TrEMBL record, chain A:
Pfam families: ABC_tran (PF00005). It comes from the Archaea. Belongs to the ABC transporter superfamily. Its main location: membrane. Probably part of an ABC transporter complex. Responsible for energy coupling to the transport system. GO terms for cellular component: ATP-binding cassette (ABC) transporter complex. This is ABC transporter ATP-binding protein. It is found in: Cell membrane. Residues 2-235 form the ABC transporter domain. PANTHER family: ABC-TYPE COBALT TRANSPORT SYSTEM, ATPASE COMPONENT (PTHR43553:SF25), HEAVY METAL TRANSPORTER (PTHR43553). Keywords: ATP-binding, Cell membrane, Membrane, Nucleotide-binding, Translocase, Transport. SUPFAM superfamilies: P-loop containing nucleoside triphosphate hydrolases (SSF52540).
UniProtKB/TrEMBL annotation, chain B:
The keyword Transmembrane helix applies. Pfam families: CbiQ (PF02361). Its main location: membrane. This is Energy-coupling factor transporter transmembrane protein EcfT. Keywords: Membrane, Transmembrane, Transmembrane helix. One of its GO terms (cellular component) is plasma membrane. The chain crosses the membrane at residues 24-48, 69-89, 95-119, 228-250.
Length: 271, 251
C-alpha cells in the first residue's frame, strides 16, 4: 500500500535528511515512527502524500508513483495532519474549517453537510460549530485539525505528533480513534516522540536515526531493546525501565503482563 | 522558499564594513531615482548600478535569490500594468513601455534594498538608528521585523504544505482565483505572527526589557573616511542621473 524503495532526500547539498529508506506498510497496519529531533521523520511522511518527491529511489502509494502524481490527487487518499494546528486553521468558523478539504475535493453538498456533522460530533466540537477556530483552546484546535482531515475519510491517515499538548484523557480518545480507524481497515502512520503512546497503542514501530531506519518491527521487541533505544537516543517506556530494574525476563511494554510478573515475584518471595 | 534577500551573513568586504548610515544615504538617494524616473533605460541603468556593489560585497548568490524570489511579483506588476494601461490608453506600445518600466522599477528597488540588508548586520542597523536619534523601541521593532522575515518564510512553506495536504491547489484557476488561493496560507501566517509577537513580548518583559531608563551602548558607530567617500560617490551618481532630466529632459 505504501512502499519506499531506496529513497533519499536532501534539503541542502551534502547532507541527507533521509537516506536509503526502504519501507513497506500494508493496508490496515498501524505504525509508529519514532526517533530523535532531526532524525528525518517529518521528511519521510511528506513523501507519502507527495509534498516532497524522492530525489532518488521511488515512493509508491496505492499503486501511484508519487513522482508522477499531484499532491491534490494523493491527498484525497492520504490524510496528513500536521503537528501545529495553527499552521492550517484559517476559516471564519469551525464548521467552515472542516468544510475546506471537502469543497476542495468536490464532494456533493449533502455529503459535505453529513460529513461535517459527523466530524463535529466525533471530535466533540459541536458546541463550537460557529466559533472562529482561533478562539479555541490548544487541545480543541488540535482536535479541529484532526477533524478537518479525517472528515473526508482518507484510506491512509498520517498523524504528525498528535499527542503533544494533549492531556491523558485526550490521548486515550486518540488511541480509541486509531483503533476505530484500524477496524475500518484504514492504514495509520503516527509520527511521535511519545514513546509511551507508541508502546501502549501501536503494534509496529519504525525507529529512525540520522536519516536512516535503524529498526522496523514489533513494538514490544524494539522498545525493550536497550542498545537499540540508546543508539536512537530514545528514553525507554517507564514499564520497560521498571521491568529492567526488576530484572524481569522478558521485559514488557504491557501493563497486564508487568502486573502478573510482579505478582509472581511476590509469590516466589512469600513461598 | 527563501523570499527576499534579507538574510544577512557576516562579511568583510568594503561594502560590509561601511557605516550603515552611509549605506542608508545611498539607499535613499537611489530609491528616489527609481521613483522619480519612468524611462525604462534610466531605470535599467539604476538597476545595473547596484550590480557592481553586489559583486564587490560578494553576495551574488543571495542577491540572485532575492531577484528570483520576486519574479512572481514582477510578472504580476507587468501583467496588471499591461492590461490596465492598454485599457485606458488603447495603445499597445505605451502599455508595453510602461509595464517594462514598472517591472524594472520594482527590480531596481529589490536590488538596492538587497544590497543594504545583505551587507548590514541587524545589530549595526539598530545601533545606527539609535545614533540617528530614533527611539530605541522603534529601532528594535524594526530590527525584529527584519529578524523574523526568514522565520516567516519558513513558516509560510509549512502552511502551504499543510493546506496542500487538504487539497488546496495554489496554481489552479485564472489570475484572480490564484490570488484568492493564497487566503488559506496568509491567514494562518498572520495569526501565528500575532501569537509569536505576544510570546516574544512576554519573554522580553520577563527578562526585564525596559527596566533601564537610559540605555548606554557598548559599541558606538563612527563614520570614517571611506564612508564620506562613499557618500560623495553616491551623491555624485545621483546628480548625474538628475542631470539627464535637466540636460536632456529625460524623465
Amino acid at each position: 500500500m505504501i512502499s519506499f524503495e531506496d529513497v533519499s532526500y536532501s534539503y541542502s547539498p551534502g547532507r541527507y535528511a533521509i537516506e536509503h529508506i526502504n519501507l513497506s506498510i500494508d493496508k490496515g497496519e498501524v505504525v509508529a515512527i519514532l526517533g530523535e529531533n532531526g532524525a528525518g521523520k517529518t521528511t519521510l511522511i511528506k513523501h507519502i502524500n507527495g509534498l516532497l518527491k524522492p530525489q532518488s529511489g521511488s515512493v509508491i502509494v496505492l499503486g501511484m508513483n508519487t513522482k508522477e502524481t499531484t499532491v491534490a490527487t494523493l491527498a484525497r487518499h492520504v490524510g496528513l495532519v500536521f503537528q501545529n494546528p495553527d499552521h492550517q486553521l484559517f476559516a471564519e468558523t469551525v464548521e467552515k474549517e472542516i468544510m475546506f478539504a471537502l469543497t476542495n475535493f468536490n464532494f456533493p453538498e449533502d455529503e459535505i453537510s453529513r460529513r461535517v456533522n459527523w466530524a463535529l460530533k466525533e471530535f466533540g466540537l459541536l458546541e463550537y460549530k460557529d466559533r472562529p477556530p482561533f478562539l479555541l483552546s490548544g487541545g480543541e484546535r488540535k482536535r479541529l485539525a484532526l477533524a478537518s482531515v479525517l472528515c473526508y475519510d482518507p484510506q491512509i491517515v498520517i498523524l504528525d505528533e498528535p499527542t503533544t499538548g494533549q492531556d491523558y484523557r485526550q490521548k486515550l480518545h486518540l488511541a480509541s480513534l486509531i483503533k476505530k480507524l484500524n477496524s475500518e481497515s484504514k492504514t495509520v502512520v503516527v509520527v511521535t516522540h511519545d514513546i509511551e503512546f507508541a508502546a501502549d497503542f501501536i503494534p509496529r514501530s519504525i525507529i529512525m536515526s540520522k536519516g536512516r531506519i535503524i529498526a522496523d518491527g514489533d513494538s514490544e521487541e524494539l522498545l525493550t531493546n536497550r542498545e537499540l533505544l540508546m543508539s536512537a537516543s530514545l528514553i525507554p517506556p517507564q514499564l520497560v525501565e521498571l521491568s529492567w530494574d526488576l530484572a524481569l525476563n522478558p521485559p514488557t511494554i504491557h501493563f497486564d503482563e508487568l502486573v502478573s510478573s510482579v505478582k509472581k515475584l511476590l509469590e516466589g518471595r512469600e513461598a | 522558499m527563501k523570499a527576499f534577500g534579507f538574510d544577512y551573513r557576516r562579511g568583510t568586504s568594503i561594502i560590509h564594513i561601511l557605516d550603515p548610515r552611509s549605506k542608508f544615504i545611498y539607499t535613499i538617494l537611489f530609491t528616489a531615482l527609481t521613483v522619480y524616473f519612468v524611462n525604462p533605460l534610466v531605470l535599467l541603468l539604476v538597476f545595473l548600478s547596484s550590480v557592481p556593489m553586489v559583486a564587490v560585497a560578494g553576495v551574488g548568490k543571495s542577491w540572485l535569490r532575492s531577484i528570483r524570489g520576486s519574479l512572481f511579483f514582477i510578472a504580476f506588476i507587468f501583467i496588471f500594468n499591461l492590461i490596465g494601461i492598454f485599457w485606458t490608453t488603447g495603445s499597445v506600445a505605451d502599455a508595453l513601455i510602461m509595464s517594462i518600466s514598472m517591472s524594472l522599477r520594482f527590480m531596481a528597488l529589490i536590488s538596492i534594498f538587497s544590497v543594504f540588508f545583505l551587507t548590514t548586520s541587524p545589530e549595526d542597523l539598530t545601533q545606527s538608528m539609535v545614533q540617528l536619534k530614533i527611539p530605541y523601541d522603534y529601532a528594535l521593532t524594526f530590527n525584529m521585523a527584519m529578524r523574523f522575515v526568514p522565520t516567516l518564510s519558513r513558516e509560510a512553506q509549512i502552511i502551504m504544505d499543510a493546506q496542500r495536504s487538504r487539497g488546496l491547489e495554489l496554481e489552479k484557476g485564472n489570475i484572480f482565483q490564484r490570488v484568492r488561493n493564497y487566503i488559506p496560507v496568509l491567514i494562518p501566517l498572520i495569526i501565528s505572527s500575532f501569537r509569536r509577537a505576544e510570546l516574544v513580548a512576554d519573554a522580553m518583559e520577563s527578562r526585564a526589557f525596559g527596566a533601564a531608563k537610559r540605555r548606554t551602548s557598548l559599541y558606538v558607530l563612527t563614520m570614517g573616511r571611506r564612508d564620506f567617500l562613499f557618500i560623495l560617490f553616491s551623491v555624485a551618481a545621483f546628480l548625474a542621473f538628475l542631470s539627464l532630466k535637466v540636460l536632456f529632459g529625460i524623465q
